[in-house]
Amino acid sequence: MEAAAERAARYARAAHKLAVAKTVAVVGHLRPDADAIGSVTALTLGLEKIGKTVTPLVGQPVPFSRNLLSIPGADRVSPATDIPGEHDLIVAVDCGSVDRTGTLTGAVLAAAEDEKLLVIDHHVSNTGFGTVNLIDTRESTTSMIRELLLMIGVPLDRDIAHCLYAGLMTDTGSFRWGTASMHTLAAELMSYGLDPRRIAADLVDSTSVADLQMVGHVLANTRMVEAGGFNAAVLIADQATIAGHSESAVESLADYVRELNGSNLGVVLKEQGPGWWAVSLRSSRCDVSQVAIRLGGGGHVAAAGYTSRGTAEEALAELATVLSTTDVSL
Ligand code: 5GP
Ligand code: MN
């Protein structure tokens, strides 16, 4: 395990970057979840509290999931194809690789060229694409941001606590997993007067009849597939099924195949455009990040993703091939 002094030095380097910058752009990953938006908004509101000018962004041309607007400051996070204006520092949060910054990839790479890119992330697959890279796979991105805010003298308030809690909730599967320190942080954040039931309702529970019917349709077609020596529980969410439905409902599908009886791997194929699939992998029995990395994606040991092209059957065949030749042992 990393020595405490080494860890402290890595956090101090990142904190120093934040402390000396006057103008900052904060970039979250495309198709953001509450972890990405909570990280962007917590850092934005925190830096503004100590007088910095901050531009919060996500790299996609279209608005993100509406339920995320319940997070304080989320209405200010602009979907963008470029980083507007001049900044002393660009911070990429919760992005395991530069392509996760989506339509901002070019601008983020340019920031790296100019040696003003700070990466704050927790994915095991992180490629270290920043000038300074703070990668901590033991933490959630929001708990890392909480630590950095402490180090640069930003006191928490109710809004920042809400942002951090939203990210923490997503990253712990609504507090079903995560480290003891993440759960302790949740308790501390709640002391700022948060309403956890309301936050859970806004971010996780709230749905519509149409979305529920879509989820039901996909679940009714759950398949068990032998893939590269694994018993995969597979959900296929094609364009015709998910078009017009909320991103949060589509993303919720992965929760149903995390631990299906008789399976040791969960796979969700989500068709983003004709023949273009975002694939989610879930498992508590093998390291799916290794599989996603080999397919050009990334993520965590238990939850990872990548994109694939072709038909659903072709995507499954490609996955089976990679599964049979990857060391996924825990
Ligand atoms: P999800 O399956 O919920 O989209 O993502 C699971 C995890 O894998 C998340 O931590 C996410 O950041 C990561 N992930 C998903 N898709 C990709 C991808 O295409 N590239 C990379 N680098 N990471 C991904
Ligand atoms: Mn995220």
From TrEMBL:
Annotated ranges, domain DDH: 24-167
Domain DHHA1 intervals: 244-319
UniProt-listed SUPFAM superfamilies: DHH phosphoesterases
GO terms of molecular function: nucleic acid binding
Gene3D superfamilies with a match to the protein in the record: 3.10.310.30, inorganic pyrophosphatase (n-terminal core)
Protein name: Exopolyphosphatase
